[in-house]
Design goal:
The protein contains 3 helices and 7 strands, in the order αββαβββββα. It has 185 residues and is an alpha+beta fold. The protein has a single domain, classed as Roll (Thiol Ester Dehydrase, Chain A), CATH 3.10.129. A 5-stranded antiparallel β-sheet has the order 2-4-5-6-3. The protein has a two-stranded parallel sheet with strand order 1-7. β4 and β5 form a beta hairpin. The protein is globular, with a radius of gyration of 20 Å. The N terminus is likely disordered.
């Protein structure tokens, strides 16, 4: 998509990181757990995706799609009966995409002990009804932590772009080596 096409669908007003913050709490039930009574990793990833999407929607104010889960750390297990609280916010907005950070805590409902159990970075892309990318507003970091997350998001983006270029080169090299191999009868 050309810059002109993206710019023709502008969503201009800059928003603060605080205005994108979202929170969700879930109770871990038996259907959410594995045979050890721990929350399934895929179920937690679903919660992370949903909470991240809420922050992206608040920022973009248009349709969004998950483009990537850039990184996820499962720090410790979440147990049956725990309350899981997820908090998200937009770390940085690029042209049509946003990096969203999500932190996850588990609360033991019997003792009240709260533990940080997971963290993730997701990339969302803003689109219109027809699926065309649309420009997203800039994000304004205000606190020291928000400014650090903002700067770190650019570093992660550069790393993603370098990795994508490396994979593209590797794929091209693999395709070239296959085409030069003699065909067997």
């Amino acid at each position: 998509m050309s810059t002109t096409e993206i710019n023709s669908r502008v969503n201009p007003a800059a928003r603060t990181v605080a205005s994108t913050q979202s929170e969700m709490t879930e109770l871990v039930l038996p259907n959410d757990t594995n045979t050890l009574g721990n929350l399934l990793g895929g179920r937690l990833m679903h919660f992370i995706d949903m909470t991240g999407a809420m922050a992206a929607y608040r920022h973009a104010r248009t349709y969004i799609v998950t483009a990537a889960m850039d990184h996820i750390d499962f720090i410790q297990p979440v147990h049956l009966g725990n309350l899981v609280t997820l908090k998200s916010s937009v770390n940085r907005a690029f042209n049509t995409s946003m990096e969203v950070g999500v932190k996850v805590w588990a609360e033991d409902t019997q003792t009240g002990k709260v533990s940080h159990v997971a963290s993730a970075f997701l990339i969302f892309v803003a689109i219109d009804r027809e699926g065309h990318r649309v420009r997203v507003p800039e994000v304004i970091p205000e606190t020291a932590a928000e400014k650090r997350h903002y700067a770190d998001a650019l570093l992660r983006r550069k790393h993603r772009e370098a990795e994508a270029a490396r994979r593209k080169q590797e794929k091209a090299a693999h395709a070239n080596s296959e085409s030069s191999e003699p065909k067997s009868k």
